[in-house]
């Protein structure tokens, strides 16, 4: 054992103070008989700590007031001790104090004050922190924020542009070693190859015999030649493709979609076209055929009972040009898949030779032995036979095996040449398959008119849910020459019976059946179907009128006018006083009916809607255009009785008399109209009439009187200014009229234009600019005013100012087609017109003016087919724009045929355009009053530049 004493028996170290390290001091308890011993003094503690530090080889500690080695005094140590003092163990003055309710209340008050001050500073603190955070994010943006604008721009990428993005390719370095090995191979290239490559990039700049330069090129410093002609041609081709894509997306016609939906693929015939496509052996690489052969062999070995695998393998060999291998493969497939119809049919197809088909017949016989219930195999076996006798024999065997097959019975009936034999076969077929509507209808068609109803009655009892049988019965009555009411009664019975059997079709399906009847010539049946089924499933609360008008639009588009006529007739019977239905029906008769039908319909319309001035005027116009002036007058007289003091009827009567040379009668009607129906429109027509008659004093007197009654009528101010300007040549009075009009009607764009053009005509360009500036202040978003400002500067020869105004205009009105047209045709270089046109079409959707601009660009480049296409888009986009028709006709005068020109003129006359910048100037000129649409069209063409 060790001679060392245990811990408790050892003497205490020198200067040991119990609990000194834990901050213990002396204290007194009640058990002490006398005062407790005092703790060590400060000097003793410092001396003990100093000895311990010396023994450990450390600097003297600074606790309890001792000086540190760094030279700090006791005052600094006291400050540090005060900072780190425990508030729950206070010393000095607060050590002996008591903590009462007042102190608690004070603490709560101080806490509430601190909390309130914190809330007051919270808003400013959060604002300051948010500002600092935004500043930091602005100076140190994330990658996501840096590409945010580019991500938003991806929304405008079309499907075609996505599809045209090239593949990334191999980025893994998989084939890097092979590529490096290929680069290390060097071959000696003959000098002739180098010379040929050099000469292939050269471009001859000589002049050909016809006087046209063959192109242009520039020789570079390294000896190569840059062909700018090819570069320009490629750029033009790219721009042309983009313009076509933009037109297809924007839509030039009503049949194309708005924004990226146009397609040239027929959705119904797409799969059919794929099945008809043939792949030749030379079109597939050998490597692909080998890989496909390995894959298909794996499929066959894995599942030899899988018929499609054998078919695919055989077709692969056929595509590869190995017909014998293909037949061998499919023969093995027939062994492994004897119950697969598709495999046998493929084997028959591959073994056909077009002569006697001996092998194919043997295969078909084996196929039928394994699949004697297969209708497809029986029909294929029948088609392999060459004579009718053999085909009938095969079909009889097929019917013995599969007597319930409608397809086999139809094939057998088609082979019969004698109608009596076909009738017997169909009678037997209907006995075996009484639920086949096709067989019943075929039998009814073969029967005599007397027996056909009997057959249809049997069919109706056998298949009470078939609507085809009722339609066939109605058509039979129509063919027999029975009146319309018999056909209608039969369809009524049919609809009742089908409703009882819960076999009624939808309204759209009945309309489709009516169209089929119209296509096959059964007009009465078509009308009966519409009458009995159009209101089916619609309540009175539904918007039936709008529904039926929409139903009539689709047959019209498909050329089924009798169906649409029946729909309108039914809708008119339900809504007798609905003016919109009468107008739609009249439009149908006007475009696709006869004059007598249109007159009869309009007569019924004015009787049903006697207070519709539009119907009265249509009837009068039709009578007038047909040459019946007296009938037109009588129609207007009846309209006056039903609609007294109606301005439209008054003006129609005035136009009728004026166009027929009855000036006094027209003037009298206008005077009476001003007295009884004195609207601003009547006064305007009165002034226009006097101007057409060259009675300037009367026109000026009328316009002065009218302005006293209607000072806000902008057209009256324009007419007054035009009378002074063009007819009396009094420019101060014209200026006064225009200025007064602009103050009374500040939103009238034509008034501002007339005022500015008057100043320009007088040579006061500064005043013209001032007028247009005031106009743009009143109407800052009007593209016409901005265009006029640009034209003013351009006509003055100040192109820099015109470009500056154009830049401002496109910022204010980026969707103005007139502005883009002005910029493209007059402010852009010829080489930049196509890019600007593409940009304009993307921003302005379906603008006819832009379409005409693109057509003119192609016209200038002698791309006549493209120009004609864009002119067609323009007139289809808005047929009311006369300028589009004029540009198209001007183009056809130079590059079109007589038939096409006549067609365009007839369509323009039918459309009766009313708008257009040049068209309105010509059409509203008093000197051109009474001219036809064709004459105005030719006059506009002469003024186009």
TrEMBL record:
Residues 113-153 form a coiled coil. It is found in: Nucleus. Residues 1-106 are annotated as: Disordered. Residues 12-174 form the PRP1 splicing factor N-terminal domain. SUPFAM superfamilies: TPR-like. SMART domains: HAT. One of its GO terms (cellular component) is catalytic step 2 spliceosome. InterPro entries: HAT, PRP1_N, Syf1-like, TPR-like_helical_dom_sf. The keyword Nucleus applies. It comes from the Eukaryota. Keywords: Coiled coil, mRNA processing, mRNA splicing, Nucleus, Repeat. GO terms for biological process: spliceosomal tri-snRNP complex assembly. The keyword Coiled coil applies. Residues 74-91 have a biased composition (Acidic residues). Residues 39-50 have a biased composition (Basic and acidic residues). Associated with the spliceosome. This is Pre-mRNA-splicing factor prp1. It comes from Lineolata rhizophorae.
């Amino acid at each position: 054992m060790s001679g060392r004493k245990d811990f408790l028996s050892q003497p205490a170290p020198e200067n040991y103070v119990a609990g000194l390290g834990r901050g213990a001091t002396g204290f007194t308890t009640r058990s002490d008989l006398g005062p407790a011993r005092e703790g060590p003094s400060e000097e003793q503690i410092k001396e003990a700590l100093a000895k311990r530090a010396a023994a450990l080889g450390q600097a003297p500690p600074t606790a309890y007031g001792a000086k540190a080695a760094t030279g700090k005094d006791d005052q600094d140590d006291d400050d540090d001790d005060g900072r780190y003092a425990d508030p729950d163990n206070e010393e000095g003055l607060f050590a002996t104090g008591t903590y009462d309710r007042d102190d608690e209340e004070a603490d709560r008050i101080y806490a509430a004050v601190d909390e309130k001050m914190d809330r007051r500073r919270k808003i400013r603190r959060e604002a300051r922190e948010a500002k600092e955070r935004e500043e930091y994010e602005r100076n140190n943006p994330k990658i996501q924020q840096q590409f945010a604008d580019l991500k938003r721009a991806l929304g405008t990428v079309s499907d075609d542009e996505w599809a045209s993005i090239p593949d990334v390719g191999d980025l893994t370095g998989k084939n890097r070693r092979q590529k490096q090995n290929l680069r290390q191979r060097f071959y000696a290239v003959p000098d002739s190859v180098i010379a040929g490559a050099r000469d292939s990039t050269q471009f001859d700049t000589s002049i050909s015999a016809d006087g046209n330069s063959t192109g242009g090129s520039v020789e570079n410093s390294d000896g190569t030649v840059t062909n700018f002609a090819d570069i320009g041609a490629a750029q033009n081709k790219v721009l042309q493709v983009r313009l076509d894509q933009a037109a297809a997306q924007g839509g030039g016609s009503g049949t194309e979609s708005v924004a990226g939906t146009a397609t040239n693929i027929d959705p119904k015939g797409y799969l059919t076209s794929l099945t008809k496509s043939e792949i030749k052996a030379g079109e597939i690489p050998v490597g692909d055929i080998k890989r496909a052969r390995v894959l298909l062999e794996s499929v066959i070995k894995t599942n030899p009972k899988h018929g499609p695998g054998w078919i695919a393998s055989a077709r692969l060999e056929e595509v590869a040009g190995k017909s014998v291998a293909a037949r061998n493969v499919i023969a093995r497939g027939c062994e492994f898949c004897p119950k697969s119809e598709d495999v046998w049919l493929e084997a028959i197809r591959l073994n056909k030779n077009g002569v006697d088909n001996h092998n194919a017949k043997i295969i078909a016989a084996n196929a039928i032995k394994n699949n004697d219930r297969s209708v497809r195999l029986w029909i294929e076996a029948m088609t392999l036979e060459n004579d009718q006798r053999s085909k009938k024999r095969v079909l009889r065997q097929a019917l013995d095996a599969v007597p319930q097959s409608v397809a086999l019975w139809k094939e057998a009936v088609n082979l019969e040449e004698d109608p009596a034999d076909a009738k017997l076969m169909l009678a037997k077929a209907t006995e075996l398959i009484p639920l086949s509507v096709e067989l019943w209808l075929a039998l009814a068609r073969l029967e005599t008119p007397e027996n056909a109803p009997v057959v249809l009655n049997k069919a109706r009892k056998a298949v009470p849910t078939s609507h085809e049988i009722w339609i066939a019965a109605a058509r039979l009555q129509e063919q027999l020459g029975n009146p319309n009411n018999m056909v209608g009664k039969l369809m009524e019975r049919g609809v009742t019976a089908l409703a009882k059997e819960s076999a009624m079709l939808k309204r759209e399906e009945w309309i489709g059946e009516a169209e089929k009847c119209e296509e096959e010539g059964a007009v009465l049946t078509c009308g009966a179907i519409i009458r009995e089924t159009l209101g089916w499933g619609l309540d009175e609360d539904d918007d039936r009128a709008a529904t039926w008008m929409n139903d009539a639009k689709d047959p019209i588009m498909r050329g089924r006018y009798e169906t649409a006529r029946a729909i309108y007739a039914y809708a008119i019977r339900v809504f007798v006083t609905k003016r919109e239905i009468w107008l739609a029906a009249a439009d149908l008769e006007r475009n696709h009916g006869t004059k007598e039908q249109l007159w009869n319909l309009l007569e019924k319309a004015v009787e049903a809607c006697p207070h519709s001035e539009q119907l009265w005027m249509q009837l009068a116009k039709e009578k007038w255009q047909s040459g019946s002036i007296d009938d037109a007058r009588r129609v207007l007289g009846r309209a006056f009785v039903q609609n007294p003091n109606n301005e439209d009827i008054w003006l129609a009567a005035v136009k009728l008399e004026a166009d027929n040379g009855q000036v006094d009668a027209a003037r009298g009607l206008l005077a009476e109209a001003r007295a009884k129906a004195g609207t601003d429109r009547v006064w305007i027509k009165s002034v226009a009439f006097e101007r057409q008659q060259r009675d300037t004093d009367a026109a000026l007197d009328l316009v002065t009187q009218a302005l006293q009654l209607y000072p806000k009528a902008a057209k009256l101010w324009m007419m007054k200014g035009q009378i002074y300007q063009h007819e009396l040549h009094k420019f101060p009075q014209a200026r006064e009229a225009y200025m007064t009009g602009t103050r009374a009607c500040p939103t009238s764009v034509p008034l501002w234009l007339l005022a500015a053009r008057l100043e320009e005509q007088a040579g006061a360009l500064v005043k013209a600019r001032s007028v247009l500036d005031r106009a743009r202040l009143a109407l800052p978003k009007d593209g016409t005013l901005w265009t006029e400002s640009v034209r003013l500067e351009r006509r003055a020869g100040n192109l820099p100012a015109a470009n500056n105004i154009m830049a401002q205009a496109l910022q204010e009105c980026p969707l103005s087609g007139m502005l883009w047209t002005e910029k493209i045709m007059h402010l852009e270089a010829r080489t930049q017109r196509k890019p600007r046109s593409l940009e304009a079409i993307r921003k302005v959707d379906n603008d006819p003016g832009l379409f005409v601009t693109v057509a003119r660009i192609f016209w200038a480049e002698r791309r006549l087919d493209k120009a004609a296409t864009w002119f067609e888009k323009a007139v289809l986009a808005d047929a009311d724009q006369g300028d589009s028709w004029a540009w198209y006709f001007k183009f056809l005068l130079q590059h079109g045929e007589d038939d096409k020109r006549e067609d365009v003129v007839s369509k323009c006359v039918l459309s009766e355009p009313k708008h257009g910048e040049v068209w309105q100037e010509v059409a509203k000129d008093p000197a051109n009053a009474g001219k036809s649409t064709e004459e105005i069209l030719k006059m506009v063409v002469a003024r186009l530049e």
